[in-house]
């Protein structure tokens, strides 16, 4: 098992984004000056196959670099493109009203 997920700072700049998904569905904590997320796992059903794969990795608490590398390996794209896709997907999930409502109803 890898280190806890550290999302890119751009995902954590907004306090409202951090609070978008309520505890206990999404836990977060500060340690060593870094902000870590333990995302929800198992409650999300309306995702494409790539999304399910990413959230499974997040559920296993792999590091951000490990998630991007694994996604690149699975899809055959380079690491820069993989990082961009994973970041965009994660931003979409954390800012989605639909996701928040789906999780709240679970």
TrEMBL record:
One Pfam family from the record: PqqD
Source organism superkingdom: Bacteria
InterPro entries: PQQD, PqqD_sf
Protein name, entry field: PqqD family peptide modification chaperone
């Amino acid at each position: 098992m890898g280190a806890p997920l550290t999302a890119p700072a751009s995902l954590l700049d907004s306090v409202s984004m951090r609070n978008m998904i309520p505890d206990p569905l999404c836990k977060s904590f500060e340690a060593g000056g870094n902000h870590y997320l333990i995302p929800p796992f198992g409650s999300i059903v309306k995702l494409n196959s790539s999304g399910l794969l990413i959230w499974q990795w997040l559920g296993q608490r792999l590091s951000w670099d490990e998630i991007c590398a694994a996604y690149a390996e699975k899809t055959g794209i380079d690491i820069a493109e993989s990082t961009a896709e994973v970041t965009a997907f994660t931003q979409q999930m954390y800012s989605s009203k639909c996701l928040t409502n789906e999780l709240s109803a679970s």
